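Hey, quick one: can you model this chain's 3D structure?
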Amino acid sequence: MNNKYTIDKNRVAQSFSYAAQQYDNSTILRQQTADELLDRLSFITVQPKAILDLGSGTGRNISLLAKKYPKAKIIALDIAQAMLKKAKYKFQHGLNVKHWLPNYQNPVYIGGDADAMPLANNSIDIVYANLSLQWCDFEKCFAEIQRILRPNGLLTCALLGPDTLNELRQAWAKVDDYAHVNIFYDAHDLGEAMINSRLVEPVLDIDRITFSHKTAIALMKNLKEIGAHNINKSRRHGLTGKMTLRKVANAYEPFRHNGLLPASYEIIYAHAWRTKQPYGDTYDNNGTIKIPINQIYKRTAR
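Sure thing. Here's the predicted structure for all 302 residues.
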């Protein structure tokens, strides 16, 4: 798989650290996808000893994972230190945490990049990654996930697809030639990267969610609040003037419906497994495997 764009990891860390304080008030989408991933885990029979919340953000899902798997050690890993600090505070001061987790283990908080995780081989049973892997290099992060998963371990994740914020992308395209909206990989790229990293039996499906905003400026402000800045190295550098923003807002107006502007998000849900072989073993005499991707289907938009 060829890289379509280069990610500025320093900007990723800075953007999400900056957003840590107001993040929880602006992340309805992330909460919806997180709950969907948790629901899907109900169909999985794995009884984990260790779970990695990869890209844990402010830690909303740490308590939920701990409640679902009270005997498991929860590890929270995020590239933004301010997010980890907020996550630790929220868990320690959560209401009635000890009431429903009488034997809970304190989570472990680790600052790190998903493309090079400071975790041991074969040490994790479930990797739970909610809207975090789109900020990574798929080839590197899936290889890392394959490395740290125990045999028969599971990766479950939700990512943003290429149709995300398509309206905003089109509006900017009428103003200048720079890429102002992040570029995301599609489901086929995702499945290919999983197989190339020796994750097996990948299953992917696509959902679409639309939010409404009163103005284009309100939408862009919300994106800034959640740390979803344009992090591609090919972005235009420097401040964007009021005149330019006004042009973008005007270009967005044709999308207005029932008095509101839509902001569409394409969500790719995926899971894949680590094979039974210990890390480092070959799969055949040539050291390769060939695994077909399960059928990719699209759910009805909502």
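One thing worth noting: The chain has one domain: 9-298.
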